[in-house]
């Protein structure tokens, strides 16, 4: 049984107070850890405090003042980024993270709106990219990077201690910063493509952290691995929650070292996004193609059995099957992730329920949550305690947050409204948008459609603006349909089409790795994706897959025709958001001819 340690005395009011909080309550000798020189190195929480103070004093010495904006361009998190963030907070600098994949027009908007004075990037490649973009700006911007040994390196990150005189000046500024002061401006464009600056205060973020402290089975003795982008609010707030828990945080090097980092860190807990779990799942499926008939049969049986798992009391026969599946196959999954991993919280996109069940059956208990940048970021989450996790939902509201369904229809569905201390102050320099997203009673309009199931669990249906009506008058919610068809190992991405059209069609990005292995197995000569998407046997296979999943749907929701895209959609081309959600209007523009042809 999962035990949650109740933490009721979380006496920190500003995010940077968490450093002192950990020092006093859980003094950790390996608080923040990084990989260098073929081994892991760690900063104690005492060293973190000294480094952040030294860096904060440098900002003061350079003439930066409370309210000045500083642009961060991280890739993944790191000890350096956390130290930088904490240092900025202590002198009132407002951190504005920018995604490394952001396009030039979006970057220019952010720099102009914020009038940022300084920019720090993760490496030299991003340094030169941003340097080129900001050259034409009116305001003077000092730009640095965090790649040691190269021109433009931000040397103050190596500072280890401030003088007593510097600390006196720092304290005089630090003591003026309140919980209601702005902590960060997080730019989000979603699928609309227009960047909006979300203004979050210390109080917004701290309220989220304090809620999470009561919900997760994480203890000071645990290790966590951080590998998600630090430019997203999810992982950034998670990093500070980890510090409040007193755990040792290990920052993954990059996506190429993902497997190595899991094996060497042997984490007990991590946050993730569905795509990471789906990649792991696809990898396990691929392994079956390389086995003999008997092993392939056993692995597939174990995986199908694992998908039957559900929290709570199970029938004796299913318990026996699950135990056997775990012994024969599923336990290997946990070993590949270091052998200690027990818990994962998944967010940012919808998780296919069968994947959550399968990982949980393997002893890696997965819960799905829901949040937004505007809510710093948590709104709801399933729990790890028995009976409090419902796969296919995003759980119950976190403590301190209220959820309401606005104008529900006959199925109980409507726009999800949220109220709580974590909700943003508003959009930066966009007062007209604030009036659109807040009701007169103070409820925040999420733009998501959902309903309450099992009396208290929130289920997301779709984005309000994405739901459309066919010319036959049938309402279509594309998100659940897209997730339904992406259960196929052959389908990497899917966009459901049909607005003011007579029937539903789809743009599909094949899982080309899986498809190539299948072609080899079937004796189909593999050439290149741009040719294979037109191969008759390949199209027949995709039709079979689609027909199989169509059987579970009412006729008006079934895909009648489809386009196989010869390359994956990308963030760089604007076809995906930074959280890998398809940008509908751009994809429909890019594939307009192909879409029209499906309706001729």
Q: Quote the average pLDDT.
A: 89
The biggest beta sheet, please? Answer: 5 strands, mixed
Total count of helical runs of at least 4 residues: 20
What does the overall shape look like? globular
Annotated CATH homologous superfamily of the largest domain: ANL, N-terminal domain
- Top CATH class of the largest domain: Alpha Beta
β-strand number: 25
Which spans of ≥5 residues are poorly predicted at pLDDT below 50?
none
Taking strands numbered 1, 2, ... along the chain, how are they ordered across the largest sheet?
11-12-13-14-15
Beta strand %: 15-25%
Instruction: Give the radius of gyration.
Output: 25 Å
CATH-defined topology of the largest domain: Rossmann fold
Annotated CATH architecture of the largest domain: 3-Layer(aba) Sandwich
End-to-end Cα distance, whole Å, is 58 Å
Q: Report helical residue fraction.
A: 25-40%
Q: Tell me the structural class.
A: alpha/beta
Q: Count structural domains.
A: 3
Write the layout of secondary structure elements.
Elements: H1 17-25, E1 32-36, E2 39-43, H2 45-61, E3 69-73, H3 79-90, E4 94-97, H4 104-114, E5 118-121, H5 124-134, E6 142-145, H6 164-174, E7 182-188, E8 196-201, H7 202-213, E9 223-226, H8 233-245, E10 248-251, H9 258-265, E11 269-272, H10 274-289, H11 293-306, H12 316-336, E12 343-346, H13 353-361, E13 365-371, E14 378-381, E15 396-397, E16 401-406, E17 414-420, E18 426-427, H14 431-437, E19 444-453, E20 457-463, E21 468-469, E22 475-476, H15 478-485, E23 491-497, E24 504-510, H16 512-522, H17 529-532, H18 536-550, E25 559-564, H19 584-590, H20 592-598
Parallel strand pairs: 1-10, 3-4, 3-5, 5-6, 9-10, 11-12, 12-13, 24-25
Antiparallel strand pairs: 1-2, 7-8, 8-18, 13-14, 14-15, 16-17, 17-19, 19-20, 21-22, 23-24
Helix pairs in contact: 1-2, 1-8, 2-3, 2-6, 7-8, 10-11, 11-12, 11-13
């Amino acid at each position: 049984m999962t035990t949650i340690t109740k933490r009721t005395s979380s006496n920190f009011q500003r995010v940077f107070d968490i450093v002192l909080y950990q020092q006093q309550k859980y003094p950790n000798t390996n608080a923040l850890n990084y990989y260098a020189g073929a081994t892991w190195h760690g900063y104690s929480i005492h060293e973190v405090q000294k480094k952040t103070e030294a860096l904060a004093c440098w900002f003061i010495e350079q003439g930066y003042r409370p309210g000045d904006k500083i642009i961060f361009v991280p890739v993944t998190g790191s000890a350096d980024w956390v130290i930088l963030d904490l240092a900025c907070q202590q002198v009132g600098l407002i951190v504005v993270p920018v995604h490394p994949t952001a396009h030039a027009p979006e970057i220019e908007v952010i720099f102009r709106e914020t009038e940022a004075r300084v920019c720090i990037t993760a490496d030299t490649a991003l340094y030169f990219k941003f340097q080129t973009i900001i050259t034409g700006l009116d305001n003077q911007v000092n730009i640095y990077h965090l790649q040691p040994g190269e021109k433009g390196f931000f040397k103050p990150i190596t500072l280890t201690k401030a003088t007593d005189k510097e600390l006196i000046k720092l304290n005089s500024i630090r003591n003026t910063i309140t919980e209601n002061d702005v902590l960060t401006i997080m730019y989000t464009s979603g699928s609309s493509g227009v960047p909006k600056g979300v203004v979050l205060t210390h109080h917004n973020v701290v309220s989220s952290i304090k809620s999470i402290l009561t919900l997760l089975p994480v203890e000071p003795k645990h290790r966590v691995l951080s590998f998600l982008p630090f430019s997203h609010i999810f992982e950034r707030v998670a990093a500070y929650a980890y510090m409040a828990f007193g755990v040792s945080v290990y920052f993954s090097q990059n996506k190429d070292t993902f497997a190595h980092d899991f094996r060497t860190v042997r984490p007990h807990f991590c946050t993730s996004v569905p795509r990471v779990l789906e990649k792991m799942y696809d990898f396990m499926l691929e392994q079956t193609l390389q086995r003999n008939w008997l092993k392939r049969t056993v692995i597939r049986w174990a995986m199908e059995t694992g998908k039957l798992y559900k929290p709570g009391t199970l029938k004796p026969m299913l318990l026996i099957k699950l135990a056997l599946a775990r012994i024969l196959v599923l336990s290997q999954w946990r070993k590949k992730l270091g052998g200690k991993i027990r818990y994962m919280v998944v967010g940012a996109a919808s998780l296919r329920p069968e994947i959550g069940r399968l990982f949980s059956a393997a002893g890696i208990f997965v819960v799905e949550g829901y949040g937004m940048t505007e809510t710093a970021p948590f709104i709801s989450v399933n729990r790890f305690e028995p009976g409090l996790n419902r796969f296919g939902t995003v759980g119950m509201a976190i403590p301190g947050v209220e959820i309401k369904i606005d104008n529900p229809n006959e199925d109980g569905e409507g726009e999800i409204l949220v109220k709580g201390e974590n909700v943003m102050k508003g959009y930066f320099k966009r007062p007209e948008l604030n009036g659109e997203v807040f009701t007169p009673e103070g409820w925040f309009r999420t733009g998501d459609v959902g309903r309450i199931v099992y009396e208290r669990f929130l289920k997301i249906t779709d984005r309000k603006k994405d739901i459309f009506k066919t010319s036959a008058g049938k309402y279509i919610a594309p998100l659940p349909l897209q997730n339904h068809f992406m259960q196929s190992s052959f389908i990497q991405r899917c966009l459901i089409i049909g607005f003011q059209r007579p029937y539903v069609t789809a743009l599909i990005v094949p899982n080309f790795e899986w498809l190539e292995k299948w072609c080899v197995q079937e004796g189909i000569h593999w050439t290149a994706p741009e040719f294979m998407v037109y191969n008759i046997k390949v199209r027949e296979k995709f039709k079979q897959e689609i027909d199989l999943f169509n059987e579970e749907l009412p006729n008006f929701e079934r895909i009648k025709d489809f386009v196989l895209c010869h390359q994956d959609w990308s963030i760089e081309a604007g076809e995906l958001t930074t959280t890998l959600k398809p940008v509908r209007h751009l994809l429909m523009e890019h594939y307009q001819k192909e879409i029209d042809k499906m309706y001729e």
